[in-house]
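Quiz preparation item.
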């Protein structure tokens, strides 16, 4: 099937051609003809399937298939798209701009973290399509700064994530304020009970298009776990990067401050990195994402929430600096690599007391994951850098340490830290010069983690106590390549 056979208006077809798309993806082939007829659509598809175009193309078509808006005429919001995160909303906005470039489309994203004033000014000038996160949209609605009385098309993207993030009441509030006569499109990667209910209440006689993931990432991705005490993680991560030189990596941390700290540690070790999390100003988030996409940085350090909706191709490595809170999050994180049939690597730095989490992940992913243990004798050689952790560092409740066992997973998979552990107490930092090569013992024989040029981690310094503040220190002279 060709795009030209779908019945889209010429300006939209031209934009699709300019994007370099030749054939519609299965979700597009299934959803677009139905959407063009004005039917409701239920799309069960993940990011990477082309789902954005599946709703954006027919929306733009329907906005401009009739008479074009007269210059100076009032432009009411006719298409409303709701997405769980700022990043996803901005990406959808960018897609609308790209697909609507041959039309007079006006589109804005209304998201938190950006001055409300700028957004309301744009709204006053009139927009055809509005892409919003639920929180900010509800804020504007409550302040009566937004008029949704002319909405003809509503799209909910990543509905399951919106529910996960607790946006169900906001969605109810928003949909109740919309005109009853409208087209609804609902996209979700999974269909848990609440989303089935939502689709029943929202959609009228929908066309259902389901795209089953071809291969679960778990089957393509080379996964491994490194047992590393918390205080040795920075040094281990830096050493890993020096030796393996990942082309493009996402590093996941549990906390916002952790993300900043890890990005700084890597950058100071000569590995250009950016961080992205909920405390960063929108501009900083956009810049970090932009630098990562265009290769200025090779590493993006992110919390789970901030990473949602980020769609960057060619991720070669996913590194769990902190273990995820549950196996589903692990699968979600790891699925950032191994896209489009490419292989990928996932490495998890697992603290000795978290060892049992690995079993739960193995059960969910249906695969045995090789576990390497850092050689305790060599641990003393690592320059130790203990990341402190405060309560307010956590992005959300879900990001908390998985100390009570996996949510939803079989209880007892992780029943608290084992007593003692292999005896990795807190150690003072060694003088930097002691760094040397770092060696890891492994079940399959000792694996040497030969030192690349420079020391395996940042500089040394005086011994540091547990919980000490102050992230990474000054760059090691001669460390970075
Ligand atoms: P999405 O699932 O909407 O996030 O899209 C994933 C990626 O596929 C984006 O980079 C799109 O630009 C791209 N894409 C969408 N539709 C097509 C298509 N028909 N042909 C080729 N690439 C596409």
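Solution:
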């Amino acid at each position: 099937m060709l795009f030209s056979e779908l019945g889209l208006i010429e300006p939209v077809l031209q934009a699709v051609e300019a994007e370099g798309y030749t054939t519609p993806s299965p979700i597009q082939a299934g959803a677009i003809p139905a959407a063009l007829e004005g039917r409701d659509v239920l799309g069960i598809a993940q990011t990477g399937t082309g789902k954005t175009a599946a709703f954006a193309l027919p929306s733009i078509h329907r906005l401009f298939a009739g008479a074009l808006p007269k210059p100076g005429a009032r432009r009411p919001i006719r298409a409303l798209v709701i997405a769980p995160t700022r990043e996803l909303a901005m990406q959808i906005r960018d897609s609308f701009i790209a697909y609507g470039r041959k039309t007079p489309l006006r589109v804005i994203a209304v998201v938190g973290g950006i001055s409300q004033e700028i957004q309301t000014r744009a709204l006053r000038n009139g927009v055809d399509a509005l892409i919003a996160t639920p929180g900010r949209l509800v804020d504007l609605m409550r302040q009566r700064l937004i008029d949704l009385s002319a909405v003809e098309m509503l799209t909910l993207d990543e509905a399951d994530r919106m529910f996960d993030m607790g946006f169900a009441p906001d969605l109810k509030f928003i949909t109740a304020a919309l005109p009853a006569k409208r087209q609804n499109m609902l996209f979700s990667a999974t269909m848990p009970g609440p989303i089935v209910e939502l689709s029943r209440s929202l959609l009228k006689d929908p066309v259902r298009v389901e795209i089953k993931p071809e291969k679960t990432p778990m089957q393509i991705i080379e996964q491994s776990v490194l047992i590393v005490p918390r205080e040795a993680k920075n040094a281990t991560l830096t050493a890993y990067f020096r030796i393996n030189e990942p082309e493009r990596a996402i590093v996941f941390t549990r906390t916002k401050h952790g993300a900043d700290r890890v990005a700084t540690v890597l950058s100071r070790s000569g590995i250009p990195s950016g961080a992205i999390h909920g405390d960063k100003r929108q501009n900083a988030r956009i810049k970090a994402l932009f630098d990562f996409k265009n290769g200025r940085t090779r590493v993006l350090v992110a919390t789970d929430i901030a990473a949602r909706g980020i769609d960057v191709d060619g991720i070669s490595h996913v590194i769990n600096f902190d273990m995820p809170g549950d196996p589903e999050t692990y699968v979600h994180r790891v699925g950032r690599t191994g896209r489009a049939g490419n292989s990928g690597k996932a490495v998890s730095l697992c603290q000795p007391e978290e060892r049992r989490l690995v079993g739960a992940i193995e059960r969910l992913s249906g695969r045995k994951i090789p576990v390497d243990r850092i050689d305790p004798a060599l641990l003393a050689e690592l320059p130790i850098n203990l990341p402190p952790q405060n309560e307010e560092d956590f992005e959300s409740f879900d990001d908390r340490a998985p100390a009570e066992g996996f949510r939803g997973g079989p209880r007892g998979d992780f029943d608290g830290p084992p007593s003692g552990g292999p005896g990795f107490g807190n150690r003072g930092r060694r003088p930097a010069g002691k760094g040397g090569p770092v060696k890891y013992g492994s079940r399959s024989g000792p694996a040497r983690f030969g030192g690349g040029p420079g020391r395996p981690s940042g500089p040394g310094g005086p011994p540091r106590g547990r919980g000490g503040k102050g992230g990474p220190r000054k760059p090691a002279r001669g460390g970075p390549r």
